Here is the input.
Amino acid sequence: MVSTVPGAGELQPPDSLPQQRRLVTEIPGPRSRMLGARRSATVARAIPATIPAFIDRAGGGVVVDVDGNSLIDMGSGIAVTNVGNASPAVVAAVTEQVGRFTHTAFGVAPYEGYVAVCEALAAITPGNHEKRSLLLNSGAEAVENAVKIARVHTGRPAVVVVEHAFHGRTNLAMAMTAKATPYKRGFGPFAPEIYRVPTSYPFRDGLSGSAAAARATALIDSLVGAELTAAIVIEPIQGEGGFIVPAPGFLAGLADYAAQHGIVFIADEIQTGFARTGDWFAIEHESVTPDLVITAKGIAGGLPLSAVTGRAEIVDSVPPGGLGGTYSGNPLACAAALAVIEQIEKEDLRQRAIELGGIMSERLHALAGQFSEIGEVRGRGAMMAIELSHEGAPDAAFTSRVAAQCHARGVLVLTAGTDGNVLRFLPPLVMPDHLLQEAMDVLGESLAAAR
Ligand SMILES: *Cc1c(COP(=O)(O)O)cnc(C)c1O
Here is the structure.
């Protein structure tokens, strides 16, 4: 049985959606509750559900549910719709492509869009060296491919990751991910030859970047052996782990160690990429040039696409036929990615990320002065978070209550953190100032109400 959403009649182009928070029912409203009941009867309960409202339309800085409630979007579908939901440029590019062809398999019958995306990635990723890219479907799939490449290039087995890391949900990516529940528990056995070392977490460890890097590399020497290490894989700012910004010099320290020992240094920029932090990629801020960069999420405005981009001599160490996938680099996703990259340039969304970050930083620091539960305000650009604790201990229960209060008031926020005590803010970069200010007002009310 296929049925349409009741009431989803008059369609407006998403860019003309009123940029406002407006509640016309409680959340979830009656139509969302009906869909929720259908969901429970048919969708696996393991699939997460951040908000109970079902979405009908979205654009700019809002998502509108099937009951007509307009929510401020502080999640961007987990840092995906950086250019805004249903961005008119993306819609136009995909619409044009869908009428020409939807799929040929690039490995069977190639097309220009794939090549153009690889050219664009070569231009915007750090470093002026010769680069090669391959396109894939999901972040986890790109992580797996980056590891495959590093192993072939080095002829070594070991992969080093850090505490609080999130790299995805497939078997290898899951082994690389730190948090057991819900990502790993019961899903073993895990892929071998993954080694975890401490990261730099200034709020908790108080270490300088160079001290944290020395601690990590000493452990690589003693636990693994540099000569057996194929790759160090790291998020320049940790996403699911809680928007942990390493102390300055930590990433450079790891990258220098990798370069000295012929280890492939891989930046997982899946959550941090595509203007989110004010640069194309977060690692640019640290003046580090990774050997490989992994991208996904923000790359294609919501169409499934990911990529591995890096030094030609490393990527091309894998012989023909060794990498690929039926849908990888789908032509609709490529058209979307090209539109996204052009929109980021044209609308100067890197600068906009810095502006949005400035507003959030000011408001969040003010809230930290009012609410002792806020232990730290951190992040970069339009990727900001607060870590919440009670008497020095992580307070996940309070964090969920604040998130639920925000949702009930029409602001979609996401939680994060190994201890579940981080609220993270990822507005679309096209969000108008007044909506962001209103979201921060609502956060203040929600913090008070959750006490
Ligand atoms: C989301 C994410 C992944 C996994 O991407 P999927 O598309 O969900 O497979 C990997 N690494 C980071 C840093 C992420 O944020």
